[in-house]
Amino acid sequence: MKLVTLLCALTCITLAFTQPSFAATQKRGYVLTDTTSLPPPGPGMARLVVARDMTNISENLKPEFVFLDRTPLGLLPQRAAVTTEVPAGWHRVWLGRGASSPGVYMEFVPDGRYLLRLRESIEGGTWRGDLVRDNGEGYVSFAKSRDMQLAIMDKKGRGALQRNIDKLPTDVWAEDSTARLAAVAKAKLPIVIKEAWYLPITNDDAPAGEWDNHPGTLTLDENSLRYVRGDSVVVAIPRDSVRDVYFGSQRGGSENPWIKIGYMTAAGEQGARFADASPPAATDSYNRLFAELAKPATPRQP
């Protein structure tokens, strides 16, 4: 699949983590370097990037604390990214600042490349954030266009993140174990979103009301992604026709993330966008859809 090639885009050149480039800038707890490309993961490992591109906010906020399970991953300032190698399997990526402690459970495979983008906003003095998946080409594109840097945590930074973890009550880890099992169960097919929004790429500029007043049911299984409104199939996308999957941003006054899909038909390449219409479930639904659609295509069942 073309998607697999795009997910490998992070491996174009290498970065020496222990020797920051001449353009590096020392900050409290981390070093910022202009290098935006990454080495491939080692045997049996995957590469994870968490990026904070500051799309919807301009305030001068403190660096976020990023963790992988119980391990400090890095300090994430504005317009920067942190990265690490991850053992294969299910892991939780989460933030240590912010009242809602945004996070996501993900399955990593050997030699995989994974990108998470921190979306954030401030309304009435209250910070809100979540982590949404995107592909490797997305990282390279906005890192270069927005002058993003890579944040490399030092000993002081690691100590600050570890103190943050040490303050958490012990029952947090029991809850985490339960939530991990629930995430694994929810990843199983079919994925059904009972009220979802849909827009074809050809109608990408449609105003709010044309899509949010007419929800339908979105179902992803082993064979296809189908969107049904009433008793009519609006669009059906075979799994093996999917070529690209991207974060499709958000629309109107809603913060629900849209997933953008490129696929092939007899008439050529087509595109579609979908989003869960329920704000509380929208990010989780998006990440579940992205995780499944980013997998290599498998032969359709008869």
Description:
The chain is an alpha+beta fold. The chain has 5 helices and 18 strands. It is globular, with a radius of gyration of 19 Å. The longest helix is centred in the middle third of the chain and has 16 residues, at 171-186. It has a 7-stranded mixed β-sheet. A 7-stranded antiparallel β-sheet has the order 15-14-13-12-18-17-16. It has a 4-stranded antiparallel β-sheet with strand order 5-4-7-8. It folds into 2 domains: 2-185, no CATH class; 189-293, Pleckstrin-homology domain (PH domain)/Phosphotyrosine-binding domain (PTB) (PH-domain like). Helix content is 20%, strand content 40%.
Summarize this structure briefly.
By secondary structure, the chain is of the alpha+beta class.
